[in-house]
Specification:
The protein has 128 residues and is α+β, with helices and mostly antiparallel strands. It has one domain: Pantoate--beta-alanine Ligase, Chain: A,domain 2 (2-Layer Sandwich). The protein is built from one helix and four strands; from the N terminus they run αββββ.
């Protein structure tokens, strides 16, 4: 009886299939992680752009903020965001208070995403 000590064809095929399944699973996981990282980067960019606009408007004089006014700040939104727009709407929920709603809209994975931040500004200041 001769024993070559090698692998049979079935063992080799099964091993190749297992390696293929593991490789496909890993590459799928890496693609998913990359997509999540990209979505997070887009969200953070939109959030920073809206917060920066609110801070800019807050630093302006209170009297320049007119209720009903819409401010376009699309040019201030970083171009990393596909099909981006930025707008801020000024309202006056009560006397001596202005509300700023800054909205950044962009496209991601074929869907339109919208992020809105709001802030109240008082006539005397935000702490009074």
């Amino acid at each position: 009886m001769k024993n070559d000590g090698g692998f049979t064809l079935v063992e080799i095929v099964v091993t190749i299939l297992m390696i293929g399944i593991a490789t496909a699973s890993l590459s799928s996981m890496f693609i998913t992680i990359r997509n999540i990282q990209l979505q997070t980067a887009y969200y953070n960019t939109a959030h920073r752009a809206a917060a920066r606009e609110i801070e800019s408007l807050r630093n302006d004089s209170y009297t320049t903020l007119v209720a009903g006014q819409t401010i376009n700040f699309t040019n201030s939104v970083p171009p990393i965001l596909p099909n981006r727009t930025g707008s801020a709407v000024i309202s006056s929920p009560s006397e001596g208070i202005r509300r700023i709603d800054a909205t950044v809209t962009y496209k991601s994975q074929g869907k339109t995403r919208t992020l809105t931040l709001s802030s109240l500004i008082g006539e005397i200041g935000i702490t009074q």
